[in-house]
C-alpha cells in the first residue's frame, strides 16, 4: 500500500500552527487550578500508554508535543501507521507525576481520535482494494489537522487541504 508514510515524515504535512493548538488544548484542560498536580507533586514516574482495541497507530507528533511542552519524555513501542492488536504497550512516558496527569487526558483523546480515524481509513482502503476498486479514496477538507492527519496515516488521500489548493464548484 502506498501512503504518505512511504515518502517521509507525515508530521511535515501539518500546518505551522499545530504546536500552538497543542498548547491551547493543555490550557483548556486546566483553565485555573491543577488540584491533582498539587496533590501528587514532582516525583518522577513512568506511565504506560496501552492500545486496548485493534487499530492503526496515528497521532504521534501531537502526543510528542503534548509531553514535550510538559517536560516529559516518551518512548514509542509502535511505529506511526503500524497496526497493533490489543492489549499492546504503545508507549512509555516519563516525567513528574503532576505533568503525566496533566497530559494524560489530552494525549489519550488526540491519540484515540487520530488512531480511530487511521484505523477506519485503513479498513475502507483495504476493503475497497479487496473488492477490486482501483480509484482514490479521499477525505474532505472540512476536518481538523488531527483528523486529516489520521486519514493520511491510514492511507486515504487528503484531496485538498484548503480553499487555495484547487477550484471546486458545486451545484
UniProtKB/TrEMBL annotation:
<dbReference type="InterPro" id="IPR013785">
    <property type="entry name" value="Aldolase_TIM"/>
</dbReference>
<comment type="pathway">
    <text>Cofactor biosynthesis; NAD(+) biosynthesis.</text>
</comment>
<dbReference type="GO" id="GO:0004514">
    <property type="term" value="F:nicotinate-nucleotide diphosphorylase (carboxylating) activity"/>
</dbReference>
<dbReference type="InterPro" id="IPR002638">
    <property type="entry name" value="Quinolinate_PRibosylTrfase_C"/>
</dbReference>
<keyword id="KW-0328">Glycosyltransferase</keyword>
<keyword id="KW-0808">Transferase</keyword>
<dbReference type="GO" id="GO:0009435">
    <property type="term" value="P:NAD+ biosynthetic process"/>
</dbReference>
<dbReference type="InterPro" id="IPR036068">
    <property type="entry name" value="Nicotinate_pribotase-like_C"/>
</dbReference>
<feature type="domain" description="Quinolinate phosphoribosyl transferase N-terminal">
    <location>
        <begin position="46"/>
        <end position="115"/>
    </location>
</feature>
<protein>
    <submittedName>
        <fullName>Nicotinate-nucleotide diphosphorylase</fullName>
    </submittedName>
</protein>
<dbReference type="GO" id="GO:0005737">
    <property type="term" value="C:cytoplasm"/>
</dbReference>
<feature type="domain" description="Quinolinate phosphoribosyl transferase C-terminal">
    <location>
        <begin position="117"/>
        <end position="171"/>
    </location>
</feature>
<comment type="similarity">
    <text>Belongs to the NadC/ModD family.</text>
</comment>
<dbReference type="Pfam" id="PF01729">
    <property type="entry name" value="QRPTase_C"/>
</dbReference>
<dbReference type="InterPro" id="IPR022412">
    <property type="entry name" value="Quinolinate_PRibosylTrfase_N"/>
</dbReference>
<dbReference type="GO" id="GO:0034213">
    <property type="term" value="P:quinolinate catabolic process"/>
</dbReference>
<dbReference type="InterPro" id="IPR037128">
    <property type="entry name" value="Quinolinate_PRibosylTase_N_sf"/>
</dbReference>
<dbReference type="Pfam" id="PF02749">
    <property type="entry name" value="QRPTase_N"/>
</dbReference>
<dbReference type="InterPro" id="IPR027277">
    <property type="entry name" value="NadC/ModD"/>
</dbReference>
Amino acid at each position: 500500500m502506498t501512503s504518505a508514510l512511504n515518502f517521509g515524515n507525515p508530521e511535515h504535512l501539518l500546518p505551522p500552527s499545530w504546536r500552538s493548538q497543542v498548547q491551547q488544548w493543555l490550557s483548556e484542560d486546566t483553565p485555573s487550578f491543577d488540584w491533582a498536580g498539587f496533590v501528587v507533586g514532582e516525583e518522577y514516574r513512568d506511565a504506560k500508554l496501552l492500545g486496548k482495541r485493534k487499530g492503526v497507530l496515528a497521532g504521534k507528533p501531537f502526543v510528542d508535543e503534548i509531553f514535550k511542552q510538559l517536560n516529559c519524555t516518551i518512548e514509542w513501542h509502535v511505529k506511526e501507521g503500524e497496526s497493533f492488536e490489543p492489549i499492546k504497550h504503545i508507549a512509555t512516558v516519563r516525567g513528574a507525576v503532576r505533568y503525566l496527569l496533566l497530559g494524560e487526558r489530552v494525549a489519550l483523546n488526540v491519540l484515540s481520535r487520530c488512531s480511530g480515524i487511521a484505523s477506519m481509513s485503513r479498513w475502507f482502503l483495504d476493503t475497497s482494494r479487496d473488492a477490486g476498486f482501483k480509484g482514490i479514496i479521499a477525505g474532505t477538507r472540512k476536518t481538523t489537522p488531527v483528523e486529516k492527519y489520521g486519514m493520511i496515516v491510514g492511507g486515504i488521500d487528503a484531496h485538498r487541504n484548503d480553499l487555495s489548493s484547487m477550484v471546486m464548484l458545486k451545484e
